[in-house]
Amino acid sequence: DAKTTQPTSMDCAEGRAANLPCNHSTISGNEYVYWYRQIHSQGPQYIIHGLKNNETNEMASLIITEDRKSSTLILPHATLRDTAVYYCIVRVGSEGTALIFGKGTTLSVSS
Amino acid sequence: SAVISQKPSRDICQRGTSLTIQCQVDSQVTMMFWYRQQPGQSLTLIATANQGSEATYESGFVIDKFPISRPNLTFSTLTVSNMSPEDSSIYLCSVPRQGHTQYFGPGTRLTVL
């Protein structure tokens, strides 16, 4: 699986958009970009994933660059409950392959 | 979304003892994954458990230390054997779901004294 690089930490004001970057310059053509988050002391929660097109769901938007070497997770209106560690994971799209976690980005949302 | 429960939710154990963690899923799954999260660290994959076959362990994890059972398609156990304080971690089970995502259980918080 390709490696990812994320900033260690980020801050965001409540109500503003949180933009979390991820670099994955060695991504292969059949590898997807997944985003998970882990709120303190809970199991990781799936947010969104994509292959090459931008994706949006009720939680977030995922913007993938045309060369697929980087992506950005956007939380459009961050709330205090979005404070968590966010993990960007690149992996072949297969149910039989476990997610491998990096260090992630700690997002702190403050009022 | 899958409903995954784990027992116990937390425990405090003495060194040298063993603890068995249970993971129950609300529907049948072929594969289950076990992870460890040491204090302040990210998640590390311990092993993949397929029903009807031996678990596949990641580098640095061995069956004697972390035996896994998978008696049916909705249940698995992970045993942490001969525990030491370095085994103090959160242990999580996870299952694949549609769209090749994964759902995680709430975790078992283990403290070894």
Characterize this entry briefly.
The complex is a heterodimer of chains A (111) and B (113). With 111 residues, chain A is an all-beta fold. Chain A is 0% helix and 47% strand.
What does this structure look like?
- The complex is a heterodimer of chains A (111) and B (113).
- In chain A, 0% of the residues lie in helices and 47% in strands.
- Chain A is mainly beta and 111 residues long.
- In chain A, strand 3 and strand 4 form a beta hairpin.
- Chain A is globular and about 40 Å long.
- The termini of chain A are far apart.
- In chain A, 33% of the residues are buried.
- The model of chain A has no long low-confidence stretch (mean pLDDT 94).
- Chain B has strands at residues 4-7, 10-13, 19-25, 31-37, 43-50, 56-57, 68-72, 75-80, 89-97, 101-104, 108-112.
- In chain B, strands 2, 4, 5, 6, 9, 10 and 11 form a 7-stranded mixed β-sheet that branches. A 4-stranded antiparallel β-sheet of chain B has the order 1-3-8-7, with no helix packed on it.
- The N and C termini of chain B lie far apart (36 Å).
- With 113 residues, chain B is mostly beta strands.
- The model of chain B has no long low-confidence stretch (mean pLDDT 94).
- Chain A binds chain B through residues 32, 34, 38, 41-46, 49, 85, 87, 93-104, and chain B through 4, 30-31, 33, 42-45, 48, 90, 92, 94, 96-97, 99-107, 109.
SSE string of chain B: EEEEEEEEEEE
- Give the overall average pLDDT of chain B: 94
Number of strands of chain B: 11
Strand content of chain B: over 45%
Largest sheet of chain B: 7 strands, mixed
- Residue share in helix of chain A: under 10%
The assigned structural class of chain B equals: mainly beta
Give the beta-strand count of chain A.
9
Radius of gyration of chain A: 13 Å
> What gyration radius of chain B follows from the Cα positions, in whole Å?
13 Å
Largest sheet of chain A: 5 strands, mixed
Secondary structure tally, helices of chain A: 0
First and last CA, distance of chain B? 36 Å
Mean pLDDT of chain A: 94
Shape of chain B: globular
